Amino acid sequence: MKKNFSFDKSTFLLTVIFVVSASLIFFLMALTYKHLDNQTEGYSKITDSYEVSLQLETLYSNLKDIETERRNYILSGTEESRIESKTIIEDKIFNNTRLLKNIKQFSENDVENSKNLDALQMMILYKYDIVNETYNGIVNKDDEESVKESLLAGKNVMASIHDKIREILETEHSTLEKQKENLLFIQKSTPIYFYLIAIFALFLLVFAFYKINRDVKKQKEINKQLNLTLNISKLAETVGNFGVWVNDISREKVQISDNLYRMLGYEPNEFLEKFSNFIENIHPEDQEIVRESTHFMFKDRIIKPFRYRVFKKNKEIRIFEVNARAMVTEEGNEITLGITSDITEEVTTKANLEIYNKELTQRNKNLSIANETFGEAEKIGEFGTWQWMITENKFNFSDNYLRMNGFDPANFDQKLNTILKIIHPDDVDFVKTRVAKMYNLEQCDTFTHRIFRKDTGELRYISVASRLTKDVQNEDYFLVISSDITEEFLDKKNIEEQNRILEANNKELHAFNYVASHDLQEPLRKIETFISRLKDKDYDNLSESGQKYFERIQFAAGRMRKLIDDLLQFSRSTRVEKNYELADLNELFHNAEDSNNVLILDKDAIITKNALPNLRVIPFQIQQLFSNLINNSLKYSNPDISPKISLKVEKLEAKYIAEISQNADEIFYKFTFSDNGIGFQQDYANKIFELFARLHGKTEYDGTGIGLAICKKIVENHQGYIFAKSNIGEGSQFIIYLPENL
C-alpha cells in the first residue's frame, strides 16, 4: 500500500478517517517492520557469524600452510626452493590479509570481537615477522640453536593464534544462539501483525472507496493540468537549453529530465539513472569538483553555482553550470534538486570578449605609447601631422605641427583658415589649389610652400605630403605630414650654387688642360728643339759663361716639361672614370719598378715586398701610386747608404683601424710602404699631400710637389685612406688602406 497520500482537505471526515486509520496501520506496520527488520538482522548476523567461522578456519589453514612451508625450507630448503617457497607464502599472506579485512568488516559492530580480531592481527603480523626473518637470512640454518629457536617461536605463535581463533569462534557461537532465539520469537509474532494490518487495510479500503472514486474525476482534471505544466516545463527546458535532475544519495539514483539526456547527446533513458553512470560523462579533471560540491552541499546545506565540463555521446566537450539545493524528503532521504544549463556558448563568447578586451586594452596601451613616441618623433624630426575628416570637414592638428608654425597648441581653434593666414602671400593661391584637390578626394603630390611663423614672423619653408585613407568607420580622410625643411632647402640652394661654381671651375680646368696639353707644350717643344740644335752645333763655340747660361736654360725647360706632365697626371686622376676591375697588384708593382729601373740601378736600391692580393682597382692609377711612392723614396734617399724600400700588406676589419671610421664589418687591406731615407718632421705629415707642397728647396732635391698629391687623389678614387709617418733621419712610412670590395 502506498505510503504517500493525497489529502482532500474539503472532506473533513475522510481526512480524520485517513489520519486515524493510517496512524494505526503505520503503527502496526512499524511493529511489523521492526519484527521483519529484526528477523532480517538476525538472519544477517547468523550468516555473518557463519561466514566469519568459515573465513577464520581458512585463515588458520593458510597460517598452518605458511608454517609448514617455512619449516620445510629451514630443514631441507635450497636457494632455488627458497624463491618458490617464498612465492607460495606471499600468496598465502595476501589471501590472509584479504580474509582478515573481510572478517573485520563482518564484526565491526561487535566490540568484543573487534578487540579479539585486533589481537589476532597483531599475532599474525608477529608470525609474518618470523617468516620474513627466515627468508631474509636472519635465521642461520647452519646454526642448530638458531633453527631451534625459530621453530619454537613459530610453534608458540601458532598456538597463540589457534587459541585466539577458538576464543573468537566461541563468541560467535554464543551470539548465534541468541539470534536463533530472537528469530523464533519474531517468526511466531509476525503473522499476527500481518492479520491486523490486513483487517485495518480492508476497512479503510471499503470505507474510502466511495470517497476516492468521487475524487478520481477531480484527480484526472488535475492530472491534465499537471501534464500541461509538465509539457510547458519540457518546452522551457528545450528553449532555455537547461535540464532538471534529482540526485537521491541514499538510493544512488539520479532522475534526469529528457532534455538533460539530449544535452548530453543521448536519447531519454538511454543509460541507467545512477550517479556513477551520470558522472562518467563528466570530464575527468572536473569529476572531483562535482563530488566535492555534492559533499559540501549535504554537509552545509548550501551550494554555490559551479561549472564543469562534460563529454557528449559524440565526444564533443560542453560546459555545464549547476544551480542546486540540498533537501531531505519526507522519508528522510537526502536528495539534491538541481538545474543544469549548457553555457558553452556563453563561456566561449565571454572568453572571446575577454581576449578581445585584452587585445583592445593592449592595443590602446600600444596606441598611447605610439602616440607619445610619435609626438616625440615629431619634435626630433621637426615635422607635424594633421588629419582632415572630409565628411565632417573637421581638422585635427598635432601639437608639434602647431608649434612648428608658431602657434600655442593649448589655445588653437583647429581651423584651416587660421593656418592659411600665416602662409606667404605669394604661395596662398598655390596652397588653396592643393586644398581644393584634397577636398575633391584627389591625391596630391608632395609640395613646398613658405610661411611666416605666428610667434616670430620668421620665414620658413614647409614640405607637405598627404595621403587619402579611410578610418574604422570607412570614412575618407586625409593624413598630412608637414616638415620644416628650411635648413635643408637653404642647404640645397647653397649646394646648387657651389655646384654651379664647381662646374665653372671644371670648365676652367678643362680649358687649362687644353692649354697645358696644346698651347703650353707646343712652344716648349720648339724651345727644347732649338736647345737640342744649339747644343749639337754651337755649344762648343759659346764662352764659358754662355755655356752656363745655356745649361740653366736647358734645366729650366726640363723642369717646365716635368711640371706640365705632372699637372696633366693630376688632372687625369681627378676626372678619370672609375672603372674598377680585378687586377693582380704584384704585376702592377713590378711595372712600377720597371718604370723607375734606371734610378733604382743608379742608387743601388733594394726593394722587398710581401705577396700582394688581387683587388678591384683602376689598374693604371694603382701602378702610378706604386711608381710615385718608389720614386719619392729614391728621390729623398740618404746619399751615404743604399736605399731600402719595403712594402708589407695585411688584412684588417675596419673596427680594428683607429685612423678611420667606417662600417665595423667592412674589410680593408693595409699597405705599409717604408724606406730608410732622410725623413721629415711629423708636423708636415698632412702638408706633403697638398698640391705643389715642398719641404726642400729646388736646388736640394728635384721635384714639382705634385707626386704625393697625385697619390692621395688615387687613394681617394678607391675610397681609401693614406697617412704618412716620419722623423728626420729615420726614414718614412706611407700607410694606405684600400677596401676589399669596390
Describe this structure in words.
This protein has 742 residues and is α+β, with helices and mostly antiparallel strands. The protein folds into five domains: 12-223; 241-342, PAS domain (Beta-Lactamase, 2-Layer Sandwich); 382-483, Beta-Lactamase (2-Layer Sandwich), CATH 3.30.450.20; 485-572, Helix Hairpins; 576-739, 2-Layer Sandwich (Heat Shock Protein 90). The chain is 58% helix and 16% strand. It contains 18 helices and 17 strands. The protein has helices at residues 12-76, 79-106, 111-135, 144-240, 258-263, 275-279, 287-300, 344-381, 399-404, 416-420, 428-439, 486-519, 521-537, 544-575, 585-595, 597-603, 619-635, 707-717, and strands at residues 242-248, 253-256, 306-311, 317-328, 334-342, 383-389, 394-397, 447-452, 459-470, 476-484, 581-584, 606-609, 614-617, 644-653, 667-675, 721-726, 732-739. The strands form four sheets. A five-stranded antiparallel beta sheet has the order 2-1-5-4-3, sandwiched between helices. A five-stranded antiparallel beta sheet has the order 7-6-10-9-8, sandwiched between helices. Helix 14 packs parallel to helix 18 (707-717). The protein is elongated and about 185 Å long. 20% of the residues are buried.
